[in-house]
Amino acid sequence: DIENRNWPTKFRGPLLIHASKGITRDEYAAAFTTAEEQGIELPPFEDLPLGGIVGQATIADCVQAHASPWFFGDFGFVLADAEPLPFRPCKGRLGFFTPSEP
Q1: What mean pLDDT is predicted for residues 9-30?
Q2: Which 8-state DSSP code applies to residue 43?
Q3: H-type helices in the chain, by residue range?
Q4: Torsion of CA 61, 80, 12, 97, to 10 degrees
Q5: What integer pLDDT is reported at residue 82 of this predicted model?
Q6: Which of 10, 45, 57, 96 maximizes the CB count within 10 A of its CB?
Q7: CA 101 to the chain's CA centroid
Q8: Comparing C-alpha atoms, which of 74, 81, 29, 40 is closest to residue 60?
Q9: Cβ(76)–Cβ(2) under 8 Å?
């Protein structure tokens, strides 16, 4: 329900969710612990879909504090209507971007 960033946005509306091509085992372990505390099961590290579009959501707000257990850092994009999409490989970029066609 939160996407943490070190920069704010005025954007509100729908967007696609891109999974980074890389994640360390330490980053995975931290996410796994938080997910487990929330009753959410993550796939094994080796089975993570990486380097592509994995879902869609709507940015409803941008906040500097939030009660979500997922919130940390400077800014949180408050997400609504999040849902998974079939994995689609896509090269990522920093910030918001328009994905390339497959």
Answers
A1: 95
A2: P
A3: 25-37
A4: 120
A5: 96
A6: 57
A7: 21
A8: 81
A9: yes
